[in-house]
Amino acid sequence: MQIVNTISESRDAVRAWRSAGQSIALVPTMGNLHAGHLKLVNEAKKKADRVVVSIFVNPTQFGIGEDFETYPRTEREDQEKLNDSGADLLFQPAVSEVYTQDAKTVVSVTGLSEWYCGASRPGHFNGVATVVCKLFNIVQPDVALFGLKDFQQLTVIRTMVRDLNIPVDIVGVETVREASGLAMSSRNGYLTSEEKTAAAKLYQSLCVARDAILAGQQSYEEIERKALLFLQEAGFQPDYFSICRTNDLKKADVDDVELVLLTAAKLGKTRLIDNLCFSR
Questions:
Q1: What would the pLDDT profile of 158-186 be if each residue is shown by its tens digit?
Q2: Which one, of 133, 132, 115, 113, lies nearest residue 123 by Cα?
Q3: Longest Cα–Cα distance in the chain
Q4: In what side-by-side order are the strands of the sheet with 237-245?
């Protein structure tokens, strides 16, 4: 696996593959890799001849008081995992390589970015959309893979690609879960052992709500209210629990068929997100 730190090195490697007629897949990450990330790499190998993985802890998607400085950085372990997984190129730039000091351009997907996590983390999805757009311009992949765990993020990126006519296919990959049902996340490392046991109830709340809808309950507001109460009683500080339409994340009604349940909640000092997609 080749490791590069500059945009020019990344472009040189991709240009050589392009000249050989090879296709490119990109897996953007912030590092501290776990089984969910490695599943993205494995799926990427099925989609393209060459796989580029980026590791970049993006400062513009962290708000004031969030964990940018303390976000786990495990460079050596990540490199070993990616090498073992068969990635072809690791792009691991410094902040100064990605953002010039006088950068003035921000990519904003209005509407979607202000809801749910966007309401609690103002500017977060502007940071996500901007850095992903930059990565697409740097690597120019044929396909890019993202986990379904952050469904709102995936929807923002898909919308950006559509609206800006970016020639890349976006593939969502199923969430990898621990045996308890807890979605794998780099931030799970912040949880104490007791909190990690309790954290599985976030996914449980989604399953209970899904089962209620499939059983024919039609008061979505009541289902959401019960889910929020369940999380509070389990020790969470819920941010939101919303029953949404899969295609545009607007509030669902009983006539909608393709649904996604979105939730976010703090457990101790750790903010966790999860979702569940299904057809009614």
A1: 999 999 999 999 999 999 999 999 999 99
A2: 113
A3: 58
A4: 237-245, 258-267, 270-279
Which pLDDT does position 24 carry in this prediction?
Answer: 98
Query: What average pLDDT does the segment 107-133 reach?
Result: 97
Edge-first strand listing for the sheet containing 89-91: 2-4, 89-91, 50-55, 24-29, 143-147, 169-173
The model's confidence at residue 150, banded by pLDDT at 50, 70 and 90, is very high
Determine the topology of domain 186-279 in CATH: Pantoate--beta-alanine Ligase; Chain: A,domain 2 (3.30.1300)
Active-site amino acid positions: 37
Q: Which CATH class is domain 2-173?
A: alpha beta
